[in-house]
User: Fold this.
Amino acid sequence: MIAIAICDVKSGRDEEAYDFIEKLESSQQVTPLLIGRLFESADAVLLLHCVDMESLDDYLMEKIRSNIDIQELVIVPIYEFKLLSSFDFMVDLELEVAETEQLVSEDFLLFMAKIDVAPTKDKAVYDYAESIQQTDENVPLMLGHTFHSEEFDLVLFFLSKNLERAWEFAKMLRAIDGVLDSEINLVAHFEGLVTLEQFKELGSAPRSSE
Assistant:
């Protein structure tokens, strides 16, 4: 299972907290996949793969909440997670360097679109979002269903050439029949904590039944 952890960091301790999260290591049940700084709040977002919720809870308590600079956590489990076909675009851009280097060229910005969906429209909106094709300006990467989270119903990670192109992409998302509202977060800096090969393997793995 994939989960998003949004970390609320103590004011003035952003760099220290980010450096701490950046050095997180995998356990037998949990693997940190990607870390990013959220531009709007200067806090951190972390994408993790876990075997089950119990192992994730143990990992968060031992590895993240043990840091006094991380004051709050919002955890959003992604019950249906899919790497879109254009995810391979990231592989094409990957530099042949260490695992912790940036995943893609600095020519692109990463965004996280959190989408609120109307009742009865979940599958239709998910299918539409899944069908969005890559263009020269926008690249949809990963799509997830949050099982009617209080925060949002769907999450879509995408790359854009610039803010204007991202705004056009966001308007397209908001025009989908069944979308009630959306929030677009710019991930000001992001990097992989595993190789893209490992990311693809874990991101494509079927969810274990609990």
User: Anything to note?
Assistant: The chain is about 25% helix and 35% strand.
